[in-house]
């Protein structure tokens, strides 16, 4: 970040888009008169995607300006709704627990506390069997809300104590295939990682064939 010409960082807070939807469930809808839209928990992704992808001023070329205009309004509602502080705190507690918010701090003591709270996104230190499947959409597609993932984990323990694990990962798009952003043409190119204990021996991977046209 510094090498790109910016200042040094004290830390990083990464926030997934659905945190905003969770907050709107407590704060209520937000109207953006300049854009002629009202955003609520149910329509937030569809409305913002349409604004970002289709309705922006191509001459100004600022497709995400609507998000920049939305955030300060949400922040103002966060600070002014004093009667909803318990619900708001619950939203942050929930999204931190589900890793929809992850935090990193350059300060050692702060970072240790973040790790203790499991808010830092760090892998667990564990001396037994371990499996973590992590998928990251890398192509900017808008299908993630409709992707459902099922993980079938079978462990065979041999008489000598050796464990052979078989993992089957099934990812299904349950959205409307004709939907403009989230349908079959939206695509879901994802970087899929499977983490296992250090020292595990990789045996075989199948099922990564290209889907027929």
Short summary:
The chain is α+β, with helices and mostly antiparallel strands and 213 residues long. The chain has helices at 18-27, 44-53, 65-80, 85-97, 108-116; strands spanning 11-15, 30-32, 37-39, 101-105, 132-137, 147-157, 163-173, 190-195.
How would you portray this structure in words?
- The structure is a single chain.
- With 213 residues, this protein is an alpha+beta fold.
- Helix content is 27%, strand content 23%.
- The chain contains 5 helices and 8 strands.
- The strands form 4 sheets. A two-stranded antiparallel ribbon has the order 1-4.
- A hairpin with a 4-residue loop joins strand 2 (30-32) and strand 3 (37-39).
- The two termini are 41 Å apart.
- 7% of the residues are buried.
Tally the beta strands.
Answer: 8
The H-and-E topology, N to C, reads as EHEEHHHEHEEEE
Low confidence ranges:
none
Distance separating the two termini:
41 Å
- Average pLDDT for all residues: 88
Largest β sheet strand count, sense and barrel closure: 2 strands, antiparallel
Tally the helices.
5
Order of strands, main sheet, comes to 1-4
- Helix fraction? 25-40%
Shape: globular
The percent range for strand residues is 15-25%
- Rg over CA atoms: 21 Å
Structural class: alpha+beta
